Amino acid sequence: MSHYLSHLRHWRIWVALLAGVWAAIPSSAAASNSDPQVFKPGHYRLADGLLRTGSLFLVSDNELLVKNESAAEPQRFAAVQVRNFVIGTDSFAVLRKFDVVVNGVVDHYSCAIVRVYQATGGLELYGLQGPIEVYNSPSTQTVLQSLSMGLKYGLVGSAVGAAAGALRDKSNARYEERMMTLLLFRPPGASELQTIIPQTKSTRSLLEKTLVGPPELKSKMQSLQTADYTNENIVRLIAYYVKHNKQ
Protein backbone atom coordinates (compact mmCIF):
# COMPACT_ATOMS: atom_id res chain seq x y z
CA MET A 1 0.00 0.00 0.00
CA SER A 2 1.39 3.34 -1.00
CA HIS A 3 2.07 6.13 1.46
CA TYR A 4 -0.93 8.02 0.09
CA LEU A 5 -3.35 5.13 0.35
CA SER A 6 -2.19 4.37 3.87
CA HIS A 7 -3.61 7.75 4.87
CA LEU A 8 -7.00 7.30 3.25
CA ARG A 9 -9.81 7.25 5.76
CA HIS A 10 -11.85 4.09 6.26
CA TRP A 11 -15.28 4.28 7.90
CA ARG A 12 -15.37 2.38 11.18
CA ILE A 13 -18.30 3.25 13.52
CA TRP A 14 -20.77 0.35 13.48
CA VAL A 15 -24.50 1.15 13.83
CA ALA A 16 -26.95 -1.75 13.65
CA LEU A 17 -30.05 -0.93 11.60
CA LEU A 18 -32.90 -3.07 10.25
CA ALA A 19 -32.83 -3.82 6.53
CA GLY A 20 -34.75 -1.33 4.43
CA VAL A 21 -34.18 1.63 6.73
CA TRP A 22 -31.39 3.01 4.57
CA ALA A 23 -32.20 3.81 0.94
CA ALA A 24 -29.29 4.25 -1.42
CA ILE A 25 -29.20 7.10 -3.91
CA PRO A 26 -27.62 5.91 -7.17
CA SER A 27 -24.73 8.10 -8.27
CA SER A 28 -23.13 7.91 -11.69
CA ALA A 29 -19.94 9.46 -10.35
CA ALA A 30 -19.08 7.37 -7.30
CA ALA A 31 -18.54 3.62 -7.60
CA SER A 32 -17.99 0.61 -5.39
CA ASN A 33 -14.62 -1.08 -5.19
CA SER A 34 -15.66 -3.66 -7.80
CA ASP A 35 -16.71 -1.09 -10.41
CA PRO A 36 -14.28 -0.15 -13.21
CA GLN A 37 -12.82 3.33 -13.25
CA VAL A 38 -15.02 5.27 -15.67
CA PHE A 39 -13.69 8.78 -16.17
CA LYS A 40 -16.18 11.45 -17.23
CA PRO A 41 -15.65 15.02 -18.44
CA GLY A 42 -15.78 17.71 -15.80
CA HIS A 43 -13.96 20.52 -14.10
CA TYR A 44 -12.40 20.92 -10.68
CA ARG A 45 -11.06 23.58 -8.37
CA LEU A 46 -8.13 22.86 -6.06
CA ALA A 47 -7.02 24.75 -2.96
CA ASP A 48 -5.31 27.38 -5.12
CA GLY A 49 -8.72 28.46 -6.46
CA LEU A 50 -7.92 27.91 -10.15
CA LEU A 51 -10.53 26.16 -12.28
CA ARG A 52 -9.24 23.25 -14.37
CA THR A 53 -10.85 20.82 -16.81
CA GLY A 54 -10.24 17.10 -17.24
CA SER A 55 -11.77 13.65 -17.01
CA LEU A 56 -12.72 12.82 -13.42
CA PHE A 57 -13.48 9.72 -11.37
CA LEU A 58 -14.60 9.87 -7.72
CA VAL A 59 -13.03 6.98 -5.81
CA SER A 60 -14.31 7.69 -2.30
CA ASP A 61 -15.19 10.50 0.09
CA ASN A 62 -11.47 11.25 0.30
CA GLU A 63 -10.03 10.57 -3.16
CA LEU A 64 -10.54 12.09 -6.60
CA LEU A 65 -8.74 10.93 -9.77
CA VAL A 66 -8.18 13.32 -12.68
CA LYS A 67 -6.96 12.48 -16.18
CA ASN A 68 -5.40 15.15 -18.36
CA GLU A 69 -4.25 14.78 -21.95
CA SER A 70 -0.72 15.86 -21.03
CA ALA A 71 -0.29 13.15 -18.34
CA ALA A 72 0.11 9.42 -18.86
CA GLU A 73 -1.32 8.51 -15.45
CA PRO A 74 -4.26 10.08 -13.58
CA GLN A 75 -3.49 12.48 -10.76
CA ARG A 76 -4.71 11.62 -7.28
CA PHE A 77 -6.14 14.31 -5.02
CA ALA A 78 -7.17 13.90 -1.40
CA ALA A 79 -10.17 15.82 -0.08
CA VAL A 80 -7.92 18.33 1.70
CA GLN A 81 -6.50 19.36 -1.69
CA VAL A 82 -9.88 20.01 -3.32
CA ARG A 83 -12.47 22.79 -3.06
CA ASN A 84 -15.18 21.55 -5.42
CA PHE A 85 -15.72 19.83 -8.76
CA VAL A 86 -18.33 18.78 -11.31
CA ILE A 87 -18.60 15.40 -13.04
CA GLY A 88 -21.11 15.52 -15.87
CA THR A 89 -24.15 17.17 -14.29
CA ASP A 90 -23.31 16.18 -10.69
CA SER A 91 -21.77 18.76 -8.37
CA PHE A 92 -19.44 17.92 -5.47
CA ALA A 93 -17.81 19.91 -2.71
CA VAL A 94 -15.52 19.32 0.26
CA LEU A 95 -17.07 19.84 3.70
CA ARG A 96 -14.68 20.59 6.56
CA LYS A 97 -15.03 20.10 10.30
CA PHE A 98 -18.50 18.63 10.61
CA ASP A 99 -20.18 15.90 12.65
CA VAL A 100 -22.22 12.87 11.62
CA VAL A 101 -24.65 11.52 14.23
CA VAL A 102 -26.33 8.11 13.84
CA ASN A 103 -28.26 6.56 16.74
CA GLY A 104 -26.47 8.85 19.18
CA VAL A 105 -23.00 7.92 17.92
CA VAL A 106 -21.04 11.05 16.95
CA ASP A 107 -18.28 11.00 14.36
CA HIS A 108 -16.10 14.08 13.80
CA TYR A 109 -14.92 14.66 10.23
CA SER A 110 -11.99 16.93 9.42
CA CYS A 111 -13.06 16.94 5.75
CA ALA A 112 -14.88 14.80 3.20
CA ILE A 113 -16.06 14.92 -0.40
CA VAL A 114 -19.86 15.12 -0.65
CA ARG A 115 -22.40 15.29 -3.45
CA VAL A 116 -24.19 18.65 -3.50
CA TYR A 117 -27.95 18.26 -3.88
CA GLN A 118 -28.91 21.73 -2.70
CA ALA A 119 -26.92 24.77 -1.63
CA THR A 120 -29.37 27.58 -2.41
CA GLY A 121 -32.64 28.87 -1.05
CA GLY A 122 -31.31 29.21 2.47
CA LEU A 123 -30.68 25.51 3.04
CA GLU A 124 -28.10 22.85 2.17
CA LEU A 125 -28.38 19.14 1.39
CA TYR A 126 -25.40 16.86 0.79
CA GLY A 127 -24.84 13.16 0.16
CA LEU A 128 -21.95 11.39 1.90
CA GLN A 129 -21.22 8.01 0.36
CA GLY A 130 -19.42 5.11 2.00
CA PRO A 131 -19.43 1.34 2.57
CA ILE A 132 -21.67 -0.67 4.89
CA GLU A 133 -21.56 -4.36 5.76
CA VAL A 134 -24.84 -6.24 5.41
CA TYR A 135 -25.27 -9.04 7.95
CA ASN A 136 -27.44 -12.08 7.10
CA SER A 137 -28.49 -14.24 10.05
CA PRO A 138 -28.60 -17.93 8.99
CA SER A 139 -31.23 -18.70 11.63
CA THR A 140 -33.71 -15.87 11.20
CA GLN A 141 -32.71 -14.48 7.78
CA THR A 142 -32.89 -11.05 9.41
CA VAL A 143 -30.67 -8.54 7.70
CA LEU A 144 -28.88 -5.95 9.81
CA GLN A 145 -27.01 -3.10 8.26
CA SER A 146 -24.04 -1.75 10.15
CA LEU A 147 -23.24 1.70 8.84
CA SER A 148 -19.60 2.61 9.12
CA MET A 149 -19.22 6.34 9.62
CA GLY A 150 -15.77 6.96 11.04
CA LEU A 151 -12.23 7.86 10.13
CA LYS A 152 -9.25 5.61 10.64
CA TYR A 153 -6.93 8.59 10.60
CA GLY A 154 -7.69 11.87 12.35
CA LEU A 155 -10.72 10.49 14.17
CA VAL A 156 -11.59 12.45 17.30
CA GLY A 157 -13.68 11.00 20.08
CA SER A 158 -15.87 8.56 18.12
CA ALA A 159 -17.79 6.21 20.38
CA VAL A 160 -17.01 3.08 18.38
CA GLY A 161 -17.87 0.67 21.16
CA ALA A 162 -21.35 2.07 21.73
CA ALA A 163 -22.80 0.35 18.70
CA ALA A 164 -20.24 -2.33 17.93
CA GLY A 165 -21.53 -4.61 20.68
CA ALA A 166 -24.87 -4.92 18.94
CA LEU A 167 -23.35 -6.85 16.06
CA ARG A 168 -23.20 -10.62 16.05
CA ASP A 169 -20.14 -12.80 15.61
CA LYS A 170 -19.07 -12.63 11.97
CA SER A 171 -17.97 -16.27 12.07
CA ASN A 172 -21.63 -17.32 12.22
CA ALA A 173 -22.89 -15.11 9.40
CA ARG A 174 -22.29 -13.92 5.88
CA TYR A 175 -21.31 -10.32 5.27
CA GLU A 176 -21.54 -8.31 2.08
CA GLU A 177 -20.19 -4.79 1.68
CA ARG A 178 -22.33 -2.28 -0.16
CA MET A 179 -22.01 1.40 -0.99
CA MET A 180 -24.75 3.61 0.44
CA THR A 181 -25.43 7.32 0.83
CA LEU A 182 -26.09 9.27 3.99
CA LEU A 183 -27.80 12.67 3.77
CA LEU A 184 -26.57 15.76 5.63
CA PHE A 185 -29.01 18.67 5.96
CA ARG A 186 -28.65 22.27 7.12
CA PRO A 187 -32.06 23.94 7.53
CA PRO A 188 -32.34 27.72 7.02
CA GLY A 189 -30.73 29.60 9.90
CA ALA A 190 -29.06 26.51 11.39
CA SER A 191 -25.36 26.59 12.19
CA GLU A 192 -24.73 22.84 12.16
CA LEU A 193 -25.41 20.08 9.66
CA GLN A 194 -28.00 17.52 10.72
CA THR A 195 -27.75 13.83 9.84
CA ILE A 196 -30.98 12.69 8.20
CA ILE A 197 -32.12 9.17 9.06
CA PRO A 198 -34.59 8.13 6.33
CA GLN A 199 -37.93 6.54 7.09
CA THR A 200 -38.04 7.84 10.66
CA LYS A 201 -40.59 10.00 12.46
CA SER A 202 -37.91 12.49 13.47
CA THR A 203 -36.94 13.11 9.84
CA ARG A 204 -40.56 13.44 8.78
CA SER A 205 -41.19 15.95 11.59
CA LEU A 206 -38.06 17.94 10.71
CA LEU A 207 -39.01 18.26 7.05
CA GLU A 208 -42.64 19.11 7.78
CA LYS A 209 -41.46 21.97 10.02
CA THR A 210 -38.80 23.15 7.57
CA LEU A 211 -40.39 22.83 4.13
CA VAL A 212 -43.26 25.25 4.67
CA GLY A 213 -44.54 27.59 1.99
CA PRO A 214 -45.72 25.83 -1.19
CA PRO A 215 -49.29 24.58 -0.46
CA GLU A 216 -49.01 21.70 -2.92
CA LEU A 217 -45.84 20.51 -1.18
CA LYS A 218 -47.59 20.53 2.19
CA SER A 219 -50.43 18.48 0.72
CA LYS A 220 -47.98 16.03 -0.81
CA MET A 221 -46.07 15.57 2.46
CA GLN A 222 -49.28 14.99 4.39
CA SER A 223 -50.16 12.16 2.00
CA LEU A 224 -46.84 10.41 2.59
CA GLN A 225 -46.25 7.72 5.16
CA THR A 226 -43.10 7.71 7.30
CA ALA A 227 -41.81 4.78 5.23
CA ASP A 228 -42.05 6.98 2.12
CA TYR A 229 -39.32 9.30 3.43
CA THR A 230 -36.52 7.51 1.63
CA ASN A 231 -33.30 9.27 0.66
CA GLU A 232 -34.49 9.64 -2.92
CA ASN A 233 -37.85 11.15 -1.93
CA ILE A 234 -36.20 13.49 0.58
CA VAL A 235 -33.94 14.85 -2.17
CA ARG A 236 -37.01 15.40 -4.38
CA LEU A 237 -39.03 17.12 -1.66
CA ILE A 238 -36.24 19.53 -0.81
CA ALA A 239 -35.56 20.26 -4.49
CA TYR A 240 -39.26 21.07 -4.98
CA TYR A 241 -39.23 23.35 -1.95
CA VAL A 242 -36.19 25.29 -3.19
CA LYS A 243 -37.67 25.67 -6.67
CA HIS A 244 -41.15 26.79 -5.60
CA ASN A 245 -40.66 28.55 -2.28
CA LYS A 246 -41.48 32.25 -2.66
CA GLN A 247 -40.56 33.35 0.83
Describe this structure in words.
The chain is an alpha+beta fold. It has helices at 160-164, 201-210, 215-223, 231-244; strands at 16-18, 40-46, 51-60, 63-67, 75-78, 82-87, 90-102, 105-118, 124-136, 143-147, 174-186, 194-196. It has two domains: 5-197, no CATH class; 198-247. Strands 1, 2, 3, 4, 5, 6, 7, 8, 9, 10, 11 and 12 form a twelve-stranded antiparallel beta sheet that branches. The longest helix has 14 residues, at 231-244. The radius of gyration is 19 Å and the shape is globular.
Largest sheet: 12 strands, antiparallel
Gyration radius (Cα, Å) is 19 Å
Helix content: 10-25%
What is the domain total for the residues?
2
Task: Please provide the ordered H/E string of secondary-structure elements.
Answer: EEEEEEEEEEHEEHHH
Count of DSSP strands? 12
Shape: globular
Class computed from helices, strands and strand pairing: alpha+beta
The fraction of residues in strands falls at: 35-45%
Oligomer: single chain
Low-confidence parts lasting 5 or more residues at pLDDT below 50? 1-29, 137-170
Could you give the distance between the termini?
53 Å
